[in-house]
Write a structure and sequence with these properties.
- It is a single chain.
- By secondary structure, the chain is of the alpha+beta class.
- It contains 6 helices and 4 strands.
- It has a 4-stranded antiparallel β-sheet with strand order 2-3-1-4.
- Helix 1 runs antiparallel to helix 3 and helix 4 crosses helix 5.
- It starts with 8 loop residues before the first strand and ends in a 6-residue tail after the last helix.
């Protein structure tokens, strides 16, 4: 691992769920998230559901603070048990990809990374309205809190929105531009 790959690490895996097994699969993903939550450094789990006929697989994203924390989770017997349960509910092999930093916004499953300039433009498009409007709107809630508290709270809301709402939508909407060869 290079020095630039320190900090949060994300592992994303994709699975195509067997017909009639969606509810069981989603319960299994909830079980994985609950089990991972007991491990040091766990930051969260996100699920990206199939999108029409264009993307039939589920993508599950799990984040940890460091590669060491993720490694402990990946070696855990409880993880192996959950993976075996999900294997019985899915078709084909599990595809898995690991990334550091914010790259996971752009790499569902084993898709190649788009060019960095495209990631930068899309991130700017997603962040600009939030950074411009959200702090002013939230200031009404904060009242007379210290500016550092206001900034920290605003950033927490923006990061959560970017991770679980804005970037999944933006990458889906702009998939034709981010990776034109895979959008066909």
């Amino acid at each position: 691992m290079s020095a630039e790959q320190t900090g949060p690490v994300t592992v994303a895996f994709t699975r195509v769920v067997r017909p009639g097994k969606v509810a069981e699969f989603e319960a299994g993903v909830a079980g994985i998230a609950e089990a991972a939550g007991h491990f040091a450094g766990y930051l969260g789990t996100n699920i990206i559901r199939p999108y029409g006929g264009a993307r039939p697989e589920y993508t599950v994203v799990i984040r940890f603070e460091t590669s060491e924390h993720l490694g402990a989770w990946e070696e855990a017997p409880v993880r192996a048990e959950w993976v075996a349960r999900l294997d019985a509910l899915t078709l084909g092999e599990m595809k898995q990809a690991r990334s550091h930093g914010l790259e996971y916004w752009f790499t569902p499953g084993d898709a190649p990374l788009p060019p960095r300039w495209k990631m930068a433009i899309l991130t700017w498009l997603a962040l600009f309205p939030q950074v411009y409007w959200l702090p002013g709107l939230l200031r009404r809630i904060y009242g007379d809190q210290h500016p550092a508290v206001q900034t920290a709270a605003s950033l927490a809301v923006i990061v959560a929105l970017m991770t679980w709402v804005v970037m999944p939508v933006m990458t889906r909407l702009f998939s034709f531009w981010l990776a034109p060869e895979s959008a066909e």
